[in-house]
Every structure is written in structure tokens, then in C-alpha cells.
Amino acid sequence: MTLLLALALISAVITFGMSLVVYKLSLKYRLYPKIRDRDVHTRPTPRLGGIAMFLGILGAFGVGWLLAGQFGVLTLIFSDSGPILAILGASLLIVVIGVVDDVWDLDWMTKLAGQFVAAGLVAWLGVQIYSLPIGGLTVGSPVMSIVITLFAIVLVMNAINFIDGLDGLVAGVALIANGTFLVYTYLLQREISPQNYFSLAGVIAAILVGACAGFLPLNWHPAKMFMGDAGALLIGLLMATSAISVTGTINPDTLSTLGRSSLVPAFIPIILPFAVLIVPLLDFGLAVIRRLRAGKSPFSADRKHLHHRLLDMGHSHLHAVLIFYAWTAVLSIGCLLFFFDPYWMAIVFVAIGLVVCTAFTLAPLSRRKANEAAAELAPAGSDEADATAHYDSLDIASEQRTENSARPLAQPATKENP
Fold first, then answer.
1. Which of 9, 91, 105, 351 reaches 20 to 30 Å from 256, CA-CA?
2. What does DSSP assign to residue 343?
3. 3-state class of 252 per DSSP?
4. How many structural domains compose the chain?
5. CB neighbours of 153 closer than 8 A, spacing ≥ 6?
6. Is residue 172 part of a domain?
């Protein structure tokens, strides 16, 4: 675990240093787009943080490669260079696509095609879903494995990209989710192979945790720099790859042969990736349904994402981000707790966490109802009534009716009055 934390620290340091460099260069050469209607920020802000994150990830993998000769436990991971080169090559491709989109605004079909090419590179060189722990060990054909892997990676990339709308949101959510997944891969590998705690999934999760931690200081509200599509798609690509390298290869019977209860641990490899991604996937699904019902492209932009709705409910920018963090932490950590006995502790944690998160999410609605009730009960003409007048729905409706009745009736169309 110490080496994994060291890789995370290396990734964080390099990412933070490169973020400062990219930020200064972006300001010097005005490498930032104009503010769009759906944007929450009010001043032009550089969007090339994904470049710094990629350099941090690349540097951490490079250090890991160098350390593989000194630490035998890393040899099994870095001796097979094919998957790692595929991951880095796909990461470079997706960052290039993201940067071009951040600067020149690509059309969605070109971006989607690039995402499939990057996912195909990962799947082609060995990181695939070979099996699913559902009803035993289900193994599909090689073609089916590649197809499922492609769509899984592209789905996660877009889900992460869709929630990238508030300062620090994606970086923080990914930090929590990948931190949880890192702990899980470590515990799982320790169960399966007590002599070697390392796995490709764990290395990817550790390096990604470091990249998010190194970028978050510049991305915290008010953000000096955004990660842009390059950073969000990169995070989605690596999260999907990390999950697939565990979900797609583990035999669910392995844990039961180790003396553990067979049902719950066997399903954790497939449940946990969905748990850590439940908020992005939910936002992605709702956005696709909403846009298709409106007759638009599922990748068209709008201002109706979950984070926008939290702001419209009355949450501050910081509160909306912290709510996303809380939901992610409760669901991912709660799922991780099912790895341990007794299971009732996980159930209690998730139940309490969901109640608390729901209460904080809906708090502005309760406050507004209380304010509306106070406004309606306040004596007419009092200072309290004047202060709460904008909450009184009855007065607002009355004023609207008065305004409508005061308007002149429309005259019938004639030659003199067209």
C-alpha cells in the first residue's frame, strides 16, 4: 500500500506543478473560451487543466516503470507493457480531442467517434470485460467482450463529462470514488494473492487519485482553471479502465473458496463501479432521456443537469458540490463495507447516509415553504411583511392578476390596426 500511496503522491505533485504552468500560459496567451449561456462562472477561465492532469498521470506511470526494477511487486504490473501503453495512448488521444473541443468546439459526432477509437485501443490491447459475475462465471465471445468494453468505457467517459459543471465537482467526486476503489482493489488483491497486493486496477486508481488531488487546489471554488473536456473524459477513461480490469477478470467463485460468504463479495466487483459512478450515470441517463423527448441530440448542451437543479433549488455553489461529494461517499463507501462481515453494518451506514443526504438536498425547499408560510401570516403593512413579500405566493399571484387586468384589451386586426 505504501508504494501505491507513493505513486499517488508523485501524480499529485506533478499535476499540481503542471497545473500552475498551464494556468500561467493560458493567461499569457489568452487560451480560454467565451462564457456560454449554460455556464455557471461569470468570468473567462482557462479550460486546459486536463493537460496538466495527463502529464501528472504520465509522470507517475513513468516513475512506476522505473521503480519496477527496484521493487519486485511492481514487476508483474509493468512487465506486461501492452495494457499500460494502450491506456497511455488512449489517454493521449482523448486529451487531444478534449483540448481541441475546449478551444475550437468540436461537433458531438466527432467527439464520440474519437471516444470509441480511444476505447477501442484499450480493448484491443487486452483490457476487456471477459466475464461478468452474474449467475456464475459468464464468458462471452471475443467480439462480444470488445463490444461491451467499448460501450462501457464510452458510457463512463460521457457520464463523468456531463457532471463537469461546477468548480471542483468532477475532481472531488473522482477523488472520493477512486479512493474507495483503491481500497477495494487492495483488499481484494490481498484476499486473492497474499504475497502480492498490486494490481493494474489499483495502480490506475492510485495515480488517478493523485491527479485529482493535485488539480483540485486550482479548481476549487472560485476556480482559477477548469479541467475541460480533456480532463473529464480522461478521468472517465481511467475510471472505466480500472473498473474493467477488475470486473472483467475476477472469478466470483474465488472469494467463496477463500472462506467468505459467496453472494455479496462475488457481486461487489460489478456493483462497486456502478456505486461510485451512480451520480454521474444518473445525470447522464436523465439528460439523454430529457433531450431525446425534446427531439434533440442526446449530446446537445443545456442547463438542466443535476448540479444546475441544485443551484436553482437555492443551494450555494459550495453546498451543491458538497452534496455531490456526500452522495458519492455514502454510496461508494457503503458498497465497500459489504466486503466485511457483518453486512448489517453496511446496511445501517447506507440507510443513515441516504436519509442525511436527502435531508440536506431538500433543505432549501423546506426553508422556502417556511418563509412562504411566514410571509402569508405576517400582518399587512408591517416590516416583516415587507421583508418577506417576495415569498408570498398569494400576493404575487394577486399582483399578476392586477397587472393583467390593467392591460388594454387587444384590438381586432383591421387595415388601420394590423
1. 351
2. T
3. coil
4. 1
5. 115, 118, 119, 122, 123, 236, 237, 240, 241, 244
6. yes
